[in-house]
Amino acid sequence: MLNYRVVAMPMPEASSAGKIVRFGLFEADLLSGELRKNGSRIRLQEQPFQVLTLLLERPGEMVTREDLRTKLWPADTFVDFDHSLNTAVNKLREALGDTASNPRFVQTVARRGYRFIAPVHDDGGSLIATPSAQAATANATEKAADTAIPSETVLHPDLEVPVPRRGLTRRLFLLVQVMYLAFYLAALFRWQEVRQVADSFLPGWGAVAIVTAVLVTAGIGIPLRCYLISAVSFDHRRLGEKFRSLFPAILALDQLWAVAPFLLAQNIGFGAAFAATAALLYLPFSERTLVRMAYPDSP
Questions:
Q1: Which residues span the domain enclosing 271?
Q2: Which residues are within 8 A (CB) of 118 and not within 5 positions of it... i.e. 6 or more apart?
Q3: E-strand spans in the chain?
Q4: Predicted TM-score of the model (pTM)
Q5: Which helix (H) or strand (E) holds 180?
Q6: With bands split at pLDDT 50, 70 and 90, how would you rate the model's confidence at 175?
Q7: CA separation for the pair 79, 92 (Å, rounded)
Q8: DSSP SS3 for 271
Q9: Is 160 within the bounds of a domain?
Q10: Among the four 174, 220, 232, 293, which has the fewest Cβ within 10 Å?
Q11: In the predicted model, what is the mean pLDDT of the chain?
Q12: What is the DSSP code (8-state) at residue 162?
């Protein structure tokens, strides 16, 4: 009689598909270098993702700028480190929808480095760390050291100026659009007075040409300004790209309306009209700068 015994063979362990961590609505695959939001992949360049990886590996801890330089740029690499790191961090914040002034993920530590302040979970959903509590303790320690020295200035990657609050730049841009819209409406409502003023300068066909130009450009400008007002009010994220494509037309339109104060020269004087015209000539370039500050290029 033969006896058989079944021996269970050990199964090989499943290899890990990758080191995936989750924070907020995002998940990052630290091995493949992919960032996703609600399952949709977000385009992020290599260096910004490397910065994210270093921060996620040490959640709640300060990662110094020197550590980032060592990891991202070897000793034999010649690069403008401060500018390159600021650019990488700004692109990372843009991909995360984060801001330096009110961070939800990446916090700037004055002149020292950066800290990841959101709770981080592993692939199984377990909490790796609660950086907010750790950051609060670290902030209390660092606050005394920072009181005597100014905070780190975060520079815009393209304009080389301190990054202002987005709310401020958006409001300024909105005020400029409302101002131009008021110009157009006032000219249309009082076009007969515009013609009288134009007759005093260029009677006959010259006055007709001026009035026609005012009416046509105002008719074009009203829908344009309404679009820009609605776009900045609803914070359309691609406004920067749209504004760049519209800028040649906006520049031409604004340069024409810059001479409008000379129609009021008899009432306000030649000097005031000249000063107002000079300011209006510069205004479209200010609009472009405000848009670039609030809506930088996407990575």
A1: 166-294
A2: 23, 24, 59, 104, 105, 131, 132
A3: 20-23, 26-29, 34-37, 40-42, 62-64, 106-109, 113-116, 120-121, 127-129
A4: 0.47
A5: helix 166-189
A6: very high
A7: 19
A8: helix
A9: no
A10: 220
A11: 77
A12: B
Q: How far is CA 61 from CA 35, 90, 223, in A?
A: 21, 19, 50
Kindly list the strands in the beta sheet with 62-64, ordered across the sheet, starting from the edge strand earlier in the chain.
62-64, 113-116, 106-109
pLDDT tens digits for range 229-245: 998 888 888 888 888 88
Q: How many domains does the chain have?
A: 2
Query: Are residues 101 and 46 part of one domain?
Result: yes
Query: Which residue type sits at 243?
Result: F
In whole angstroms, give the CA distance from residue 229 to residue 91. Answer: 26
pLDDT over 50 at 8, yes or no: no
Encoded amino acid at 297, one letter: D
Residue 105: phi, psi to the nearest 5? -125, -60
6 in a structural domain:
no
For residues 220 and 151, give the distance between their C-alpha atoms in angstroms, rounded to a whole number. Answer: 45
Angle at 74 between CA 73 and CA 75, to 5 degrees: 120
Look at residue 152 and tell me if it is in a domain.
Answer: no
Mean pLDDT of 262-286: 81
- Contact criterion met (CB below 8 Å) for 113 and 62: yes
Strands 40-42 and 62-64: unpaired
Predicted pLDDT of residue 143: 46
> Looking at residue 104, what is its pLDDT?
87
pLDDT in tens, 187-230: 888 777 777 777 776 677 777 887 788 888 888 889 999 999 99
CB 149 within 8 A of CB 110: yes
**Is residue 288 a part of any domain in this protein?**
yes
Q: Which residue has the higher pLDDT, 122 or 140?
A: 122
